[in-house]
Automatic annotation (TrEMBL):
Record membrane topology: Multi-pass membrane protein
Gene3D superfamilies: ABC transporter type 1, transmembrane domain, P-loop containing nucleotide triphosphate hydrolases
Keywords: ATP-binding, Cell membrane, Membrane, Nucleotide-binding, Transmembrane, Transmembrane helix, Transport
Chain ranges of the ABC transmembrane type-1 domain: 44-326
GO molecular function (one): ATP binding
Record-annotated ABC transporter domain positions: 360-594
Compartment(s) where it occurs, according to its Swiss-Prot or TrEMBL record: Cell membrane
Protein name per UniProt: ABC transporter ATP-binding protein
Tagged with keyword Cell membrane: yes
Lineage: Bacteria, Bacillati, Bacillota, Bacilli, Bacillales
GO cellular component term of the entry, any: plasma membrane
Length: 607
């Protein structure tokens, strides 16, 4: 529509964390989407807590097992057997708890995401067209799919891991202090080293991965452009230059990617070195204390395990928090759409528009997509019942805007639009739009059969009624030539049909809906002359007795319109039938002359 404005370390640093603006507020809103599963979520937390507590006692039991065999002449097999059985029960119980919490959590998150996605999709149906004009379709799809998937993945992974990590971190520290404050102090010497290592590598990898994402974006953009415009690429022999450009970007991506992977790959080996250094410190200090009979060998074994449990959450918690932040940031993008202003609700006293006569009147209508730029400026006209009104003029003059206002895709800034003498804002939107049939320049067909696409105009229609509509629209002849006729499956937007065939199906759809008012927006601009003849015949059938508005650049399609309005800069410059406007020899006459007499002449003048 021309009138509209136009390894573990590597994984940790590859995630480009987008920080949420309101973490607490967004988490509170997400919590509301758990609905009746909140009590079940408490069960998951309880299972996680029990599992974490069991894991905290495992190292203690391992130490007891070691002590039954260390530094004694005889082994107490009864005690050893009891410890082994207890360990076996602990591990089995932990596995069952893990499985149970994962099973329950998967269901909870699945239902939460279902509610969120259903709410978002329902919201999209209620938003005005102005909302979509300012955003790309890809962005909206990303919020409905990628962002919600990000919320699902992040929340499901983070909640239980964060809780378990905190419990094990605190619990391990407490157990270490209980077992030996001196060994605890010795083991904590590695914490500052780990912090400094992580900080220094993160500083370097952050820059490299940001550069990698930039180069990856350039590469994806180039590939998408070359594939989308493949015909143009071949027509201008651009293949070699395209390959050369691809090689340049791909080489830069490879170089920065290698550097990023090398630096991020340093993290885990260096972490292992620091952890092993910590174990060595514990072994040396613990050995000294054991020799002096201040602690047992089993306690050293327990302590090494606790130390490992204490360090692991430190490695994971930062990544878990980043994952959670990323999910909350995705939720904010979803809530940004959910908070957008919907179409104004119908007034309480709104009435249904039924069986309209089709008298349309614009009274001093002005409109702009923004407050500081008016597209239509105080226009007034009246279309009688059953009349045809053609709108012509240059691109951007305001033709499509007129029909967008008529169907209340947008609301007027000033003035009134009346149908049968009543302001259209006093009708319900649903009943108003049911009275219109619209055929656009770019016809949209849905994935499905031809029968289903035509029936979109009237879901209650029978197969016979669908076929009759197709016959009247002159679409039946090509449909029956297809392998499966009316049951032929169409690809997305009917790309396996020609533009003319798609237009004939669109007209069939309109015929089936049997509207009282018609809008034809450049319905014949992208088709060949032969198909245009079929369309013209079909359109003449549709237009009989119906109030219609026709936007066309092919002037031969509107010569017989009852009224032709020449729109320029948001104003009606000329109005009359074809003969009257040709006799005036002004802008319309000049436009006709250019199109049929001297096609290569300059655009008309305002004289």
């Amino acid at each position: 529509m021309p009138d509209r404005p136009g390894g573990g370390g590597a994984a940790r640093f590859q995630r480009q964390v987008v920080k949420p603006k309101d973490f607490k507020g967004t988490m509170k809103r997400l919590w509301s989407y758990f609905g009746g599963d909140k009590a079940l979520l408490s069960t998951v937390f309880l299972l996680t807590m029990v599992d974490s507590v069991i894991l905290l006692f495992v190292p203690f039991l391992i130490g007891k097992a070691v002590d039954t065999m260390a530094l004694t002449e005889t082994v107490s097999f009864s005690v050893l057997n009891t410890v082994i059985v207890t360990l076996l029960v602990a591990y089995i119980t932990s596995s069952l708890l893990n499985f149970s919490q994962g099973w329950i959590m998967a269901g909870i998150i699945g239902r939460m995401v279902k509610r969120l996605r259903r709410h978002l999709f329902g919201k999209l149906q209620k938003l005005p067209l102005a909302f979509f004009d300012s955003r790309t379709h890809g962005e909206m799809m990303s919020r409905l799919t990628n962002d919600i998937d990000n919320v699902s993945t992040s929340i499901s992974q983070s909640i239980t891991q964060l809780m378990s990590g905190v419990i094990i971190l605190i619990g391990s520290l407490v157990m270490m202090l209980v077992l030996s404050p001196l060994l605890t102090l010795a083991s904590l010497i590695t914490i500052p080293l780990m912090f400094l290592l992580t900080k220094s590598i993160a500083r370097k990898t952050k820059v490299l991965f940001k550069e990698q994402q930039k180069e990856l974006g350039m590469l994806n953009g180039h590939v998408e452009e070359m594939i989308s415009g493949l015909e143009v690429v071949k027509a201008y022999n651009y293949e070699e230059k395209s390959i050369h450009r691809f090689e340049e970007v791909n080489t830069r991506l490879r170089e920065v990617g290698i550097k990023a992977q090398i630096w991020s790959g340093f993290l885990m080996p260096m972490m292992n070195v620091i952890n092993n250094f910590g174990f060595m410190v514990i072994a040396v200090v613990g050995g000294y204390l054991a020799i002096n009979e201040l602690i047992t060998v089993g306690l050293i074994a327990s302590f090494i395990t606790y130390s490992r449990q204490f360090v692991r959450p430190l490695n994971d918690l930062a990544n878990i928090f980043n994952t959670l932040q990323s999910g909350v940031a995705g939720a904010e993008r979803v809530f940004d759409v959910l908070d957008s202003e919907e179409e104004d609700a119908d007034p309480e006293n709104a009435i249904d528009l039924t069986n309209p006569k089709g008298i349309v009147e614009f009274k001093n209508v002005s409109f702009g997509y923004s407050d500081d730029a008016l597209i239509l400026k105080n226009i007034s006209f009246k279309a009688e019942a059953g009349s045809s009104t053609a709108l012509v003029g240059t691109t951007g003059a305001g033709k499509t805007t007129i029909v967008n206002l008529l169907t209340r895709f947008y609301e007027v800034s000033e003035g009134q639009i009346l149908i049968d003498g009543i302001d259209i804002r006093n009708y319900t939107r649903e009943s108003l739009r049911k009275c219109f049939g619209i055929v656009l320049q770019d016809t949209y067909l849905f994935s499905g059969t031809i029968m289903e696409n035509i029936r979109y105009g009237n879901p209650e229609a029978s197969d016979e009624e669908v076929k009759e509509a197709a016959k009247v629209a002159n679409a039946d002849y090509f449909i029956n030539q297809l392998p499966k006729g009316y049951e032929t499956k169409l690809s997305e937007n009917g790309d396996n049909l020609s533009q003319g065939q798609k237009q004939l199906l669109a007209i069939s759809r309109v015929l089936l809906s049997n509207p009282s008012l018609l809008i034809l927006d450049e319905a014949t601009s992208n088709i060949d002359t032969r198909t245009e003849l079929y369309l013209q015949e079909a359109l003449s059938t549709i237009l009989q007795g119906k109030t219609s508005f026709i936007i066309a650049h092919r002037l031969n399609t509107i010569r017989h319109a009852d009224t032709i309005m020449f729109i320029e800069n948001g104003n009606i410059k000329e109005k009359g039938n074809h003969d009257e406007l040709m006799a005036e020899k002004r802008a319309y006459h000049s436009l006709v002359h250019q199109q049929f007499v001297t096609p290569m002449s300059l655009p008309y003048s305002n004289s």
